[in-house]
Amino acid sequence: xxxxxxxxxxxxxxxxxxxxxxxxxxxxxxxxxxxxxxxxxxxxxxxxxxxxxxxxxxxxxxxxxxxxxxxxxxxxxxxxxxxxxxxxxxxxxxxxxxxxxxxxxxxxxxxxxxxxxxxxxxxxxxxxxxxxxxxxxxxxxxxxxxxxxxxxxxxxxxxxxxxxxxxxxxx
Amino acid sequence: xxxxxxxxxxxxxxxxxxxxxxxxxxxxxxxxxxxxxxxxxxxxxxxxxxxxxxxxxxxxxxxxxxxxxxxxxxxxxxxxxxxxxxxxxxxxxxxxxxxxxxxxxxxxxxxxxxxxxxxxxxxxxxxxxxxxxxxxxxxxx
Lengths: 171, 141
Description:
The complex is a heterodimer.
Chain A: H1 9-20, H2 41-58, E1 69-79, H3 86-103, E2 106-108, E3 120-133, E4 136-149, E5 154-167
Parallel strand pairs in A: 1-2, 1-3
Antiparallel strand pairs in A: 3-4, 4-5
Helix pairs in contact in A: 2-3
Chain B: H1 3-23, E1 41-42, H2 51-56, E2 57-66, E3 72-80, E4 86-96, E5 101-102, E6 110-114, E7 119-125, E8 131-140
Antiparallel strand pairs in B: 1-2, 2-3, 3-7, 4-5, 4-6, 4-8
């Protein structure tokens, strides 16, 4: 059976077409960033902003004996089922410290141990809830933060959530 | 009309009703006729480039206040003029007294969902006491 050479043409074009689907590395703006089922940098930025705004609204920092307040950012515990590496949790702490320091309302401790008698200590934890419904999975990350004074009294607390959903393919 | 045609028409009608109900979900609200809260509303300037978004999710007004920390606080009311859920994102940029932008992590894009007919309040607090002005951006999602 004579096979016409034109039959091979689509096969020859495939690599060219597939190669054309590739995109060289490039920077993307906020609107085009990829999302993931785990908290992303944007999620941490959102949570950090919401938490600090809540703290400002409460006026808790204004009750500090020092101006600006000496604030120690303590440990934010990972109580989720996921093994976020320390870098991810530290990312949230870093963003909160950045916003607080830029506000001029606080002086924070970066390395630990620099502030020996803090006016306030910020601590908290991240917990998660996981729900499945058929092929759809929903992860809700609950960020719980507390601000305590030098006598370990909670002067501010808040809780924010980030919910992610994904649908598994049929095959 | 044959039975087959009747069943077909009934199926199409049912599907149409289902689609209509799924896509349209509006919200009813209740609030005091004589509000006690005294809002300080700001007149605003709008630059509309996305008429489709503006026709669906429309800023109604801006309320400003100063919190106890001395920081500027704003509240923007947006209304969903459609009868279906709308997705949008917004971002607040802050400027100092000289009109220079203040770069802050608080100026991050925030995704929101608004039900049909719903009026939503979006709030933001300035990152520093030096923030005296602001701009709010909206994009469709």
